[in-house]
Design a protein that fits this description.
The protein contains one helix and six strands, in the order E-E-E-E-E-E-H. By secondary structure, the chain is mainly beta.
Length: 131
């Protein structure tokens, strides 16, 4: 059994950019990017009842910033289990990023650019196979 999408539908993409604004003590960015996705679930063995679905589909996010010198930095990673009901949803996705501790690491990030990155976006949440 597996989830699939139509062959013409892209399963990854890039959204628009935005500027941050101050809310209290935090700089906050609001992304509002509408999209539509069609997913299909196919099951090989149709004779088994009750049917059990695998893990519900998950969206993974990588938030990047673009600095004055046109260099990208990772600002956060996040994930979201897709809502099980159809319709319009307003969702908040908490994000995090790996950090090198220390003043030298922060200066390197600011002046040279770059930052620690994940090899695989699925590391942003606990894997389904983790025990």
């Amino acid at each position: 059994p597996e989830w699939s999408s139509p062959p013409f539908q892209q399963l990854s993409g890039v959204t628009q950019t935005c500027a941050t604004k101050s809310v209290g003590w935090d700089n906050v960015a609001y992304f509002c990017y509408p999209f539509t996705v069609d997913l299909f679930y196919t099951q090989e063995d149709e004779g088994v009842f009750p049917y059990s679905l695998p893990q519900w589909p998950v969206l993974y996010f990588e938030v990047l910033s673009l600095d004055f010198w046109q260099r990208y930095r990772v600002e956060g990673y996040g994930s979201l289990v897709l809502p099980a009901s159809p319709g319009v949803h307003m969702l908040t996705i908490p994000t995090w990023r790996p950090v090198d501790l220390g003043t030298v690491a922060e200066m390197r990030r600011f002046f040279i650019g770059g930052s620690p990155e994940l090899e695989d976006l699925t590391y942003t949440r606990i894997p389904s196979t983790f025990k």
